[in-house]
Design a protein that fits this description.
With about 400 residues, this protein is mainly beta. Helix content is about 5%, strand content about 50%.
Amino acid sequence: MKKIVGITLIGISILLSSCATQDNTQVDNSINGIVCQESPYFGNTMEIVISEDGYYSQKSSFGVDEDTKQINSEGDYLTYISKETGKETYLCSKLECTHIDEKKHTLSSCNANIKSALPGSMGYHNQWVYVLTYNESTYDVTLTRVSKDGSVHEDIMVVGQSPDKASYYQYVFFDDNIYMVNKIEETNTIYIDKIDINKKEKESVYSLDKEGSIWNLKVVGDNIFGIQSEKKGEDYKKSIIKYNCTTKEVETIVEEDLIISYTIVDENTIYYYVETEGLYELNINNKESKLIRECDEETKSVYLAYDGTYLYMDNLINEYRYNENSHHQIIVCDLNGKEINTIDMEANENLLPASFCDENYLFATHFSPKGEQWTYIKHEDITKKDVSWTNIE
C-alpha cells in the first residue's frame, strides 16, 4: 500500500498546483507572525488553506462501479476545521441540511458541494475561499470563490483549460489580484497572468519563452518567488526567481539544477534543498548561500516547510528517487539545521505526506474506511519523541 499511495502522490506533487494564499491587507503580509503564508506548506498540492480562525479543506466523494470495480470521483466538497477545537465540519450554513446521502456522498443541494474541481486548487483571501472548478465536458477551468459560511458561490472567470482533472494551475494573492501560472500547450510556453478579482480582468505580466515550468509560488512583501525550470539543450536549468509586483522586474536569486524545494523564514532569508547535497541557507539581499546540513541516505531528496519556529523535511520522495528502502519520516530542525526530532510516518498505516504546519498543528492525511481523512499533531507535541497522530473525525 505504501508504494501505491506514494507513487500516486509523487506523481501529483510534481504537477503545478495551488499554493496557500496571501492576505495582503496586513502591513507585514503575515498571519500569526508568519511572514510568508506559503512557507508552512509542503510540496505543491494544497488541499488545505489557512484563514484567521481556522482551515478550509478540499475533499472528494468517491464511488465504486459495481461492474468495473473502478473507483470514480462523484464530486468535490469543502470543509472547515476550527483552530480552537480541531473539529471538522461541512462548509454549509443550511440549518436542516444533512450534507450527505445514504451512500455517504455529498448532496448536490449542500452548500459545501463544489461539483468538480482540480485537486489541490484552493486559496483563501479576504474572507473568501477560492477553488478552481472544472467542466469535464468543455475542459474549462473556472476561478470560483465561496463565502466563509458556504452560502455564496461565485464564478469569477474562466482562466483556461485543462486536458483532465490531474492538471493544475498554481496561484497566489497580492492585494486584490491573483497571480497565476499558466501554460500554452502548443508551444509549452509558461507565463504568469495577473487577474483583477474585482474587475474580472486578466493580463499576462511575465512569460518564459522557452519550454519549462514555474512552480512553488510564495509571496513576501510585494515580491513573488518561485522555482523556474527552463529547457536548455537536452537538460533543464533550475533557479529561484523573484518577480516584483510593483516594478514588474524579474531577478534570479539562486541557480541550482538539483533544487527540489524551498521555504522562506523572513524577508531576507530563504532555505532551499539541493538533491544529493542537503539544506542551504540563502541571504536574499546579497545572494550568498551556505550548506548548513548535509544530506544522508534518508534525506537525499526532501520537501521543506516552516512553521515560524521549526524547519520540517518530509523525505517521502527520497524512496522513489534515490533509495527504495528509505523510511518515510519528517525531520524537525532548528534554523541552524540541527535535528530536534524525527516523526515516523510509517508507524501509522496508510498515512500520506505532510501537507501543512503552523503554530497550532502539523497536518497530514490518511486513508480509512470513511475515505481520505485529516490527521494532526499539535505544535506543542512536535518535539516529543513518542509523538503520535490524532485523526479528525
